[in-house]
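Format notes (please read before filing issues)

Several people have asked whether sequences and C-alpha cells are stored in separate files. They are not. Every record keeps both together, in the order shown below: the sequence lines, then the C-alpha cell lines. Line labels are part of the format and must not be stripped during preprocessing.
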Amino acid sequence: DVQLVESGGGSVQAGGSLRLSCVVSGFTASRYCMGWFRRSPGKNPSGVAFVDSDGSTTYADSVKGRFTISKDSAKNTLYLQMNSLKPEDTAIYYCAAGLPANIWVATDYNYWGQGTQVTVLG
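Then the structure lines:
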C-alpha cells in the first residue's frame, strides 16, 4: 500500500546535472521527514539531503552548493536537483521517509524507494 517510486537517474559527464524524483503513495509525505541517501560500491550508505515537515533543509558537506532538495506537497513528490556533478557522486540514490531520531541514520527511516542509478563519467 505504501510506495516510494524513484526516477530521473542516468549517466552524465562530470559537471552535468540531473533531477531525481520520488513519488509517494499510501501516506502523506508532508507529515514526515524525507531525505535522499546514496550507496556506492564498496562504501557504506550515506545521507545526502533532507527536508523536514516544516520545510527546513539539511545537506551533507560534500553536496552543499551543488544539490537542492525540494518537495511538492500537492503532488506528494520529493525532488533532488543535482548540479556540477562529480565522479564521486556515482551511486544508487534512494529516497526515504520517516520520523528519525537522527536524520543521518538510514535505519531510523520507515519507508524506502527502490533506488535509481546515477553515474558520473570523467
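For reference, the curators noted about this record: Residues 40 and 91 are 4 Å apart (CA to CA). The mean pLDDT is 94.
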